[in-house]
Structures are given as C-alpha cells and as structure tokens.
Amino acid sequence: MSLSLTPEETRLLAGDQGEGMALAMRVITETARLMGASRLVPVVSAHIDGALYHGDSGTLFAEHLVRLGAKLAIPTTLNVGALDLACGARTRLPPHQHDMAYRMMRAYEAMGCAPTWTCAPYQAGHRPALGSDVAWGESNAVAFCNSVLGARTNRYGDFLDICCAMTARAPYYGLHIPENRRAVFALDCSGLSPALRNSDVFWPVIGTLFGQRAGTSIGVVLGLDGCATEDRLKAFGAAAASAGAVGLFHILGETPEAPDLATVTGEQDIPVIPVTAAMLNAARAGLSTTGETAIDAVAIGSPHCSAEELLELDRLIGGRRLARPFYACTGRHAVAELEAAGRRRALEEAGVTLVADTCVVVTPILEGVKGVLMTNSGKFAHYAPGNTGYAVQYGAMAECVESAVTGRLVREERLWS
Amino acid sequence: MTFPALTPLLPGEASGPVLQLSAPLSFWGGVDPASGRIIQVRHPECGRTIGGMILCLPATIGSSSSSAVLLELIRLGIAPAALVMGTPDAILMIGCLVAREMGWAAPPAFALDPAGQARLPGSAHIDAGGQVSPLS
After folding, report:
1. Which one is the CATH code of A290-412: 3.40.50.620, 3.30.499.10, 3.40.50.300, 3.40.50.720?
2. A56 at B interface, C-beta within 8 A
3. What is the pLDDT of residues A299-313, one digit of tens each?
4. Do B64 and A35 touch (CB under 8 A)?
5. Distance CA A104, CA A159 (A)
6. A133-174: per-residue pLDDT in tens?
7. What CATH number does the domain containing B77 carry?
8. Which of A54, A383, A387 has its CB closest to that of B68?
9. Parallel, antiparallel, or unpaired for β B14-20 and B123-126?
10. How far is A327 from chain B (nearest CA, A)?
11. Given an 8 Å threshold on Cβ–Cβ distance, is A159 in contact with B68?
12. pLDDT over 80 at A252, yes or no
C-alpha cells in the first residue's frame, strides 16, 4: 500500500513552512510508510512523552527543533520530565545530567507545549472529545485517552509525538481506525463480591490481570458497571498498560464505546473468561516482590495523584506523623488545588514529600539505601524493582498510610478471601 | 548454503556478528543507554552487548521511550550495526529516522521473520538490497 498525501501535506514536506516543519513531516511520512498507512489523519491535540531525559541525544534533538523554529499546530501537554520544577523535590542526578534534563524541559516549553508535566493530563484539563483523533504518548495516558475519553490515538513513541504536534497530523493506522477498536475477548467479574469490586485496591489488580491476558489485543471487562470512578479507571489502565501492551480497554456500562456487548464487539461472538478469586490472588501476589514486612518507604501516584486522592491521603493520615519517607507523586495542577483547599502544609508536616512534574521511578529521588517500597500503584509495583532496586509490597492507600505510620506492613486480607 | 534475503526497511548495508534474541526486548528498561548492554534481568540474553551486532529481534515489544534509548546508543556510536525485525516496529525505527535528521550515522533496518532470522550465519554482511553473505 502506498502513502498518499494531500497537496498541503506535500507542500509542508517540501519546506513551505520552514525546515522544522519539513523535518517533522519527514519523520511522520517515513513512519506512515513503514507501518503501511495509506494516508495521514488530522489530529486535534497531542501529549508529549519525549521530554524525559534518557541521555544527551534527546536534549540535542529538542534544541535542534527549537533552532529550526519549531512551532506547534495544536494544543499540546507535557508528560513528566526528570526534574521537579514545581515543588522542589530533590533529584539525585549528577550535575551534567541534571543540566541536560533541565535544558530538555525548557526546550519543549519553548516550542509552546503547556508545562503540565504530568502523566495524568486528562485530570489537568486536557480532555479531547469522544471520537476525535489525537496523538498522545505515555502508556497510561494513551490507555485513558482511548478508553475513558473515547478519543483515538496509537501509542506514539518519543520524538514522533512532537512531530505530530508540529504538523497536526499522524499516520492513519491502528487505533485511529474504528474497526480496530472492538473487543475480541471479555473478562467477567460478576462472580466477585460487591465489596471487592467497589474498593480502590481491586482496580490495579484486575488491570494487571487484564493486561496479562490481553497482550496487544483489545478486551472488555464485564460485571463492573456502577463500580468505576475516574481514579479507579486511571489505576486500571496504568496497570494494564504495564502488564501488557494495552492501548485501549473497555469496561461494559462505564467506558463510552462499551454501552452494551453488541456495540463493543461489533456483534461478534467473543470468548468470555470468568474471573475467579484464585486468578485475582495470583495477579495480586505478582504485584509484590518480597515477603519482607519491614517497610522502608512508601510511594503513591502512578499515574499522578488527583487532588481528590491527595485530600484522601490527608484524611487517612488524620494528623498523625509518618515514621517512614512517604512520596506522593502528582502534577502541579493537583498541588494548586491542594493549596487552595489549605491542606498542603498539613500534608508536608505529617511527613509527606510532594513530588511534582516527575516521579520516583523515572528519576533518582528515593534514598540510595535499597529496601522495601510499599505502593498502591500497579504501575509502580511493576517498574520500581527494575528502575529503583527496591523490592515492592502492594496494598491499598489506607494500608500504605498505616504501614508508614508503624514502619511495618499493615494489610487487610479479608476483602480478598 | 543459501541464506534468506531480507526486506530493506531503512536503507543501508551492514557487517558484523549476528545476535539472535530469543525473546522480545524493550530498549527502555532493557538496554543500558550508556553501554548498550542488555540489563533486563529476566531476558535470556541479559548481559550481552548489542553494539556492532546485526541484532535480530523476533517481535515488537515495549515502551514508547525505546526510540530515545536507541537514539542515545547511535549518538554514542554503540548502536547495533543493523536491526533485523520480525515485524516492523515504528518505535525503534523512529530512533533511526531522528538520528539521520541529526546527522548521526544510523543503522539500516530490515524485515525478516523469526524462522529466517534463525538461518542467518554467525557473522554476516548484508548489502543494501538485503542479500546476505557469510563473513569468516
């Protein structure tokens, strides 16, 4: 299949709008050709995952684009960087890496990206309309955007994301095509207890199980209608996208492309897998990597905590003093809401370190000593052992708080039996 | 003995030892961008270095930041000599496309199914048309 371009796209590629635009069009059209796309699709917004420092090359590329006069054609938000520019959490990067990470963040801001610096841009006001085509990066953001908002994006890799933002175009393939968005398998949760389905701690676990089953295919979860909240869907998607290559999921009766089984499957018969307590317990056990019950630190906020989650943390602490380091990763949008509610100081005085603009698994913030990290995030549980060297214990936010107060693992097993 | 012909994706020729990965690999979190060493502890080839190799990848996997890790390897001159992919992977090839825009010598990329990958010699030259000849 050959790629056909509109006359305008051909002019952009030829450099009518400058060399920066021509570069972006070269990257997009080459990618489209390699992926077998027959055309490009206009996109209405972008979310950039490419501003996280992995080495000097990414900084040099961003500054190259700035020098070429790169400007953005559509509203564009930024995922996390490697530094906390908003709350000042200390990053243990060596001086050269720190400098290059900072230059990279400033280069993306100079191109016109909104300095949201969050992996939950959809809770910082970036919410494209149902059915619109967009170009988003970062696995949890992509999953939320496709699944909960019903906008259409592939998992755009670093560097392609900014090229889409500059040109307002993306290769037309994969999840942009409606027929590719249907569920081909179902997980049925209707046999699980209502108390479990209505608890926050359940959602990263079922998300992990879903991701392991899905791989790259698309599925629908049955039996959870009436149980979802936005933060629960956020936690599900992040866990699913860590455990598998999930760019889109459906929750029957909750997500917009799954009002009923006929719609979400395109009226095809699909296999339905009943979820048992044993399957769920195996997925939950996999989120912890140690039997050690002494807890050295706690980290929450992957994806970034919403203001509601920070206020819930404040209520759970209830004026007590935490005995272990406690990191709450969040966006500056949520920090502003926390301040407006008058609770930032109380949270910090209790011993919570607010980490904004970045998070503890993508940049070195945790203390150098290796030990046991407790988290309520399926995504932190997946990536922390490899990226930080800490072993992980998984539990609910309330259990994370109690464990941080006592320094010992506190976990309620009754819900799961 | 005849060797399978490769389908050129990103043009170029390459010579080097063939490193056949026996499991998919995400470059982000799986390859150290400073050394090119495979660091994913669960990967069968963990500890091997991919620099200078004709790297055969059976399947697409992984993080959208893998393009950034490959770009860094290219800038440091420790990238694979060629990428041989079971299925075309947009994320890795974007690393090569951006490297070319930056004026850094990027490896060519070819498509070849895993069965064909297994029939490549231990050390090979691949010409721009995808024809393979063994190196002694």
Report:
1. 3.30.499.10
2. yes
3. 999 999 999 999 999
4. no
5. 12
6. 999 999 999 999 999 999 999 999 899 999 999 999 999 999
7. 3.50.30.10
8. A54
9. antiparallel
10. 22
11. yes
12. yes
